[in-house]
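Table S2 (text version). Query chain:
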Amino acid sequence: MRESYLCMSDGVVIIPTYNEFENIELIIRKVFSLPLSFHVLIVDDNSPDGTANVVRSLQGEYSGKLHLEVRQKKSGLGTAYVHGFKWSIAKQYDYIFEMDADFSHNPEDLVKLYEACKNGKADVAIGSRYITGVNVVNWPLSRVLMSYFASVYVRIITGMEVRDATAGFMCYKRNVLEQIQLEKIKFIGYAFQIEMKYRAYVKKFELIEVPIIFTDRTKGKSKMSNAIITEAVFGVIALKISQLFNKL
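Corresponding structure-token output:
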């Protein structure tokens, strides 16, 4: 049975954090200022900068709406989201969102993603940087090209018609996450975002891209690394092979 506090919202925004002290209060307050009521779940990887303490200090103000899960160590973006997905499914939220803490994703676009799933045809709504051209602010050209052509590469290998395959601003209907078999998710970086979309695609769910403008962080430090890029490049091939042999 759904817990009483959920009567106020059928959507939860999962925000994974590691050393986001400079951004976390601002992003939380922005989400709660929106015209639609969302709950927020922060999944913090025991940030040494005290990110979790900031969240705790706000929980009294947003009682029943702001939730915190602290993990013991930094274990990767993908595992943080899987942790949040399982928590959100257990709490029976109908619409489950992914969003970064650093304002690279505009919280106001949560409403568009919600509408695409709630009143539109989407089972999975993707906040897309590339569905209406290239909508990226403050990235160097090399980073834009890498991201854009990564999505082209994914389309060629998988056959999945998603123009922003590495997007991390998402809304999933709960039944999608219930059927994707979260315990089988393999990847933790950009490849995680690709894997989630591909598993939904293979299950015949409707993936719809919603145009957004992506703005690179102005505070804090990016978590991008060469290992994350390598995982994405080779992970796509591994996903396709698994699907071909019915082992996805």
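Notes on Table S2: The first helix runs from residue 24 to 32. DSSP finds eight helices and nine strands in the chain.
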